């Protein structure tokens, strides 16, 4: 169904959703370095026949990158990388970034202190999952990340899946009047009410000059494919610039709902040693928190990106 904006809220409309996997002008070509199995018509593909324990050669890296642009998130099973291999793999795609608010929690006791670019998510009986809101990572940065590679270290017997949404298809699925309404708009993104919520006031105030609120286009153009992509999310987007608060909230609520449309999504069930590599410029993701009090341990390495345009 398509959500149509009204002054009393979105109105559902039933019918098929025709979603394009690739932008106009995309040239399909076979993949010769690995096998690829789609998880949905537009987003998500499982790659097999390839070991990532050693850095891919240039030709393999090029095919993986083309697959990433086409499918937005790639999945690999039974890889069992260690941290150095994880870092080396992500480094094939560019400069790696550390999360500025993770601090020492990214490191295990006794671990070398030269791996700040590995972010660890360890959940269990004392810490439950809380990332179960649709979002793109670090959109409060001036230059949000290109993408991330997430590695499953320990997974529960059942539960703890992650979903991804194709935000290019989500934009395409908007009614034409909504597209016209949001064309050229920008929105403010900030970490203050999310990561800042549990910080001591002094620490939060000290970080503010380093990470001020930023503006990004509501619809960004993917820098490599040229596809228009919906670029607001419920965690970090604060308001639409120059719009009254109530109108901004209504519009953003409408746009946030696009990520929750099943036809634009794929879902991955983790196994230990599996990897997910997603394009943060064209997707949102949602970590399902249904496994408490079981343990779920994941590690993420993130690749620096550019400023949305």
Describe the structure.
This protein has 309 residues and is an alpha+beta fold. It has a single domain (35-303), classed as Double-stranded beta-helix (4-Layer Sandwich), CATH 3.60.130. The chain is 18% helix and 24% strand. It is built from 6 helices and 16 strands. It has helices at residues 58-71, 83-91, 167-172, 176-182, 201-207, 245-256; strands at residues 35-38, 45-48, 73-76, 96-97, 118-123, 147-154, 162-166, 186-189, 214-217, 219-221, 228-230, 237-240, 265-268, 275-279, 283-287, 296-303. The strands form 4 sheets. Strands 1, 2, 3, 4, 5, 6, 14 and 16 form an 8-stranded mixed beta sheet that branches. It has a 3-stranded antiparallel beta sheet with strand order 13-7-15. The model is unreliable at 1-9 and 104-115 (pLDDT under 50).
Q: Secondary structure elements and their pairing?
A:
Blueprint: E1 35-38, E2 45-48, H1 58-71, E3 73-76, H2 83-91, E4 96-97, E5 118-123, E6 147-154, E7 162-166, H3 167-172, H4 176-182, E8 186-189, H5 201-207, E9 214-217, E10 219-221, E11 228-230, E12 237-240, H6 245-256, E13 265-268, E14 275-279, E15 283-287, E16 296-303
Parallel strand pairs: 2-3
Antiparallel strand pairs: 1-2, 3-14, 4-16, 5-16, 6-14, 6-16, 7-13, 7-15, 8-9, 8-12, 10-11
List keywords for this structure.
309 residues, alpha+beta, Double-stranded beta-helix, three-stranded antiparallel beta sheet, globular, disordered N terminus
């Amino acid at each position: 169904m398509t959500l149509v904006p009204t002054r009393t809220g979105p109105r559902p409309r039933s019918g098929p959703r025709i979603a394009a996997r690739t932008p106009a002008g995309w040239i399909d070509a076979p993949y010769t370095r690995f096998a690829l199995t789609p998880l949905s018509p537009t987003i998500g593909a499982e790659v097999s026949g390839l070991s990532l324990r050693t850095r891919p050669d240039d030709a393999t890296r090029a095919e993986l990158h083309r697959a990433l642009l086409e499918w937005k998130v790639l999945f690999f099973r039974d890889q069992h990388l260690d941290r150095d291999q994880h870092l080396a793999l992500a480094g094939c795609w560019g400069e790696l970034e550390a999360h500025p608010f993770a601090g020492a929690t990214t490191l295990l006791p006794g671990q070398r202190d030269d791996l700040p670019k590995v972010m660890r998510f360890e959940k269990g009986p004392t810490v439950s999952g809380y990332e179960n809101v649709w979002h793109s990572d670090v959109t409060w940065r001036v230059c949000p990340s290109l993408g991330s590679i997430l590695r499953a270290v320990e997974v529960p017997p059942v539960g703890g899946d992650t979903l991804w949404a194709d935000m290019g298809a989500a934009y395409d699925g908007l009614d034409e009047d909504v597209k016209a309404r949001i064309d050229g708009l920008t929105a403010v993104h900030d970490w203050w009410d999310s990561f800042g919520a549990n910080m001591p006031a002094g620490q939060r105030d000290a970080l503010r000059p380093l990470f001020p609120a930023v503006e990004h286009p509501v619809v960004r153009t993917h820098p490599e494919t040229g596809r228009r992509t919906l670029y607001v999310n419920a965690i970090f987007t604060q308001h639409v610039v120059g719009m009254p608060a109530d109108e901004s909230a209504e519009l953003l609520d409408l746009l946030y709902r696009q990520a929750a449309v099943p036809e634009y999504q794929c879902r991955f069930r983790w196994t230990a040693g599996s990897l997910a590599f997603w394009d943060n410029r064209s997707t949102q993701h949602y970590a399902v928190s249904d496994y408490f009090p079981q343990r779920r341990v994941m590690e993420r390495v993130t690749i620096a990106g550019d400023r949305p345009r």
